[in-house]
Glutamate dehydrogenase (Hibiscus sabdariffa), 411 residues
Amino acid sequence: MNALAATNRNFRLASRLLGLDSKLEKSLLIPFREIKVECTIPKDDGTLASYVGFRVQHDNARGPMKGGIRYHPEVDPDEVNALAQLMTWKTAVADIPYGGAKGGIGCNPRDLSKSELERLTRVFTQKIHDLIGIHTDVPAPDMGTNAQTMAWILDEYSKFHGHSPAVVTGKPIDLGGSLGREAATGRGVVYATEALLAEYGKSIKGMTFVIQGFGNVGSWASRLIHEKGGKVIAVSDITGAVKNPNGIDISELLKHKEATGSLKSFSDGDSMDPNELLVHECDVLIPCALGGVLNRENAADVKAKFIIEAANHPTDPEADEVLSKKGVIILPDIYANAGGVTVSYFEWVQNIQGFMWDEERVNMELKKYMTQAFHNIKNMCQTHDCSLRMGAFTLGVNRVARATILRGWEA
Ligand SMILES: NC(=O)C1=CN([C@@H]2O[C@H](COP(=O)(O)OP(=O)(O)OC[C@H]3O[C@@H](n4cnc5c(N)ncnc54)[C@H](OP(=O)(O)O)[C@@H]3O)[C@@H](O)[C@H]2O)C=CC1
Ligand SMILES: O=C(O)CCC(=O)C(=O)O
């Protein structure tokens, strides 16, 4: 099932549990605006290359639309649409005053030089600058983009609208970024994991973890789990996977990745088949890369007891069903990875206030939001006798539905 069909299905299940009116259901599902632009840039060798860029603005009932921009060869309109919708429910689950959006460019950032990436980002910004803004739609990093990408968007946007640091989040600190934003999604994943494990009388210390993806989210989650005494026994990136049953020394792995750009040939572990990683024996599996990686092909073989969805929509509905029947506890993406957008919100608030918080305050507030959201999800699970995924969806959808009704439809 493609990402959009899967997301729509989860939304509809939540809508039925909440007993939403069918017209309201339809209006919540249809995106506010879908933007598709062609971005042509001169390559370093003088030839021209064209890329298609998307920004889907899903809903703004609760505030400005918010969500990352992804650079990846598999970016397509349906996936961006699904990711934008997930942002609407995620910001509502986190209870931050935003709606949802997502963007992307179909390109492989690994094949582009830094100056090509800069040109592409600037052309994309030129094409969408009228449709984003501090109080309309605020982009941030996602897969394949980072603080530097946000700096280019900020610079290009400011040429049209004047200096506007709050138009993007996840910026470099020197341009108004927030302390703690880079680590925030991984840190939020760890707070979410702690909240879940505590329900089962468990903690991170001594448990075994398998992590797919070692970019922003995966590397920070690995590092913080390692610091808390969790045993990270297998990790992968696009180049391969590494395992060590005694626990990988994550600080050494970070140095190796920094030096070589890859997890390959790491001396403190054995290489493994990346396809085997998701079904490797462990207590907790944390997908931190692409969507749809847990599917009908591998779900029955998953051995983890807990799955923390740090990636967006890593589990397709068929896998969800198989895993639930097996008793695997899944912490859903719209809660588990909400730490990133929550600290993006803190960054935006700091930019608007013109006042910078210290990192301790950022992390403390993040923990407060993540813990509160977990308790709210648990309450929805009790009210509707449902899974954590439906608990999170009903929480988010209900908040957006209430805001939509309050705003009304009168022209
Ligand atoms: N950044 C953020 O704040 C947030 C991100 N997310 C989600 O988290 C996920 C990861 O995002 P982020 O860490 O920012 O992205 P990055 O681009 O920083 O990292 C992605 C990682 O995934 C790896 N990867 C890519 N393809 C594969 C594959 N087929 N198998 C194994 N690993 C693979 C990459 O490998 P390599 O290192 O070799 O390139 C990289 O390590 C995405 O689903 C994103 O939507 C969710 C909330 C917020
Ligand atoms: O920080 C943000 O605004 C968005 C992060 C994001 O894209 C996500 O949560 O999937």
User: Anything to note?
Assistant: The chain has a mean pLDDT of 97. The chain has 14 helices and twelve strands. Residues 141-144, 185, 212-218, 236-239, 274, 288-290, 310-312, 337, 340 surround NDP (ligand 1) (CB under 6 Å).
